[in-house]
From TrEMBL:
Keyword flag ATP-binding: yes
Name of protein: Kinesin-like protein
Domain of life: Eukaryota
GO terms, biological process: vesicle transport along microtubule
Cross-referenced SMART domains: KISc
PROSITE patterns: KINESIN_MOTOR_1 (PS00411), KINESIN_MOTOR_2 (PS50067)
Protein family per UniProt: Belongs to the TRAFAC class myosin-kinesin ATPase superfamily. Kinesin family.
Ranges for domain Kinesin motor: 3-314
Length: 323
């Protein structure tokens, strides 16, 4: 089920009503309605962990215009951790509390594959051989993957923190008219979580992929005064966001009761191709829409809310990834 994080309301004279699974106000820290990062993790992050431990794939993506709080929601601010660090921390705390430790073993690998201009990079590779323009391929059973993408075995949360610190140094940021450090790439952080069960009669392995995605700003390129190369980037960013919207619409038309599946255009953008097995199918998908309180952003806010509305129609089918 889609879940949407909505930060504020629009001005009364422009009121339109939308309904989502969750809505969160974070305009005023003093207000009783203020929602903490912890609460967002309790509502959404714990569902992701539950899905992974139950053997499902999961995907959380933050959608909204630049400056509306996507990175704050996903990564957090100093001293105010967002969903990604909390999910990683929660994963290891669940592993260490697991009563199944005797009969199951866990393996956690992380990757980070930002997409910029329809090209995939490797954010976490330490020694730079080729770290950008990596190819996406699809394995008949294991699904889409990025060729040559480095994967990192992590044994505890501080291993993850260390990798994230190294990854931050590699991140490309450039300024646009809207925000001086705006992320124009889709940041993808992927966790591959493997559970092996040592049943003498039937040993089995379950792999769950968790994709945590901080999408590029959803504003139209022309709204930011972009020209030339920037405008082209805007076009590509938009292409993957438009395709993501189309994928969401197609998935929304599917029903577990229908025999024939609708055509879902996953391969029309690198972003949707990579997220294929975490959108629809057997996965837990959470969309977080972030919006701005400013009147001047009314148009973008409305388009974000409409985009989020489409995600509500997706009904995923429960099938565990067991071998
Ligand atoms: P985006 O990634 O969508 O461009 P950011 O997450 O960078 O936007 O948010 C812009 C600024 O607003 C940052 O300084 C961020 O810390 C702050 N911010 C965003 N959302 C919130 C929130 N819900 N509560 C407190 N501060 C926020
Ligand atoms: Mg950002």
């Amino acid at each position: 089920m889609a879940s949407v994080r909505v930060a504020v309301r629009v001005a009364p004279e422009n009121t339109k009503t939308f309904t989502y699974d969750f809505s969160y106000d974070s305009t005023d820290r003093q207000s009783s309605a203020f929602t903490s990062q912890e609460k967002v993790f309790e509502d959404l992050g714990s569902d992701v962990l539950k899905a992974a431990f139950d053997g499902y794939n999961a995907c959380v993506f933050a959608y909204g215009q630049t400056g509306s709080g996507k990175s704050y929601t996903m990564m957090g601010a100093p001293g105010d951790a967002g969903l990604i660090p909390r999910i990683c921390e929660g994963l290891f705390s669940r592993i260490s509390n697991s009563s199944r430790c005797d009969e199951a073993s866990f393996r956690t690998e992380v990757r980070s594959e930002p997409i910029y201009n329809e090209r995939v990079r490797d954010l976490l590779r330490r020694k730079s051989t080729q770290t950008y323009n990596l190819r996406v391929r699809e394995h008949p059973k294991d699904g889409p993957y990025v060729e040559d993408l480095s994967k990192h075995l992590v044994l505890n949360y501080s291993d993850v923190e260390e990798l994230m610190e190294a990854g931050n140094i590699n991140r490309t940021t450039a300024s646009t008219g809207m925000n001086d450090v705006s992320s124009r790439s889709h940041a993808i952080f992927t966790i591959n979580f493997t559970q092996a069960k040592f049943d003498a009669e039937m040993p089995s392995e379950t792999i769950s992929k968790i994709h945590l995605v901080d999408l590029a700003g959803s504003e139209r390129a022309d709204a930011t005064g972009a020209t030339g190369v920037r405008l082209k980037e805007g076009g590509n960013i938009n292409k993957s966001l438009v395709t993501l919207g189309n994928v969401i619409s197609a998935l929304g038309q599917e029903s577990p009761l229908k025999k024939k599946s609708a055509f879902v255009p996953y391969r029309d953008s690198v972003l949707t191709w990579l997220l294929k097995d975490s959108l629809g199918g057997n996965s837990k998908t959470i969309m977080i829409a972030t919006i701005s309180p400013a009147d001047v952003n009314y148009g973008e806010t409305l388009s974000t809310l409409r985009y989020a509305n489409r995600a509500k129609n997706i009904i995923n089918k429960p099938t565990v990834n067991e071998d």
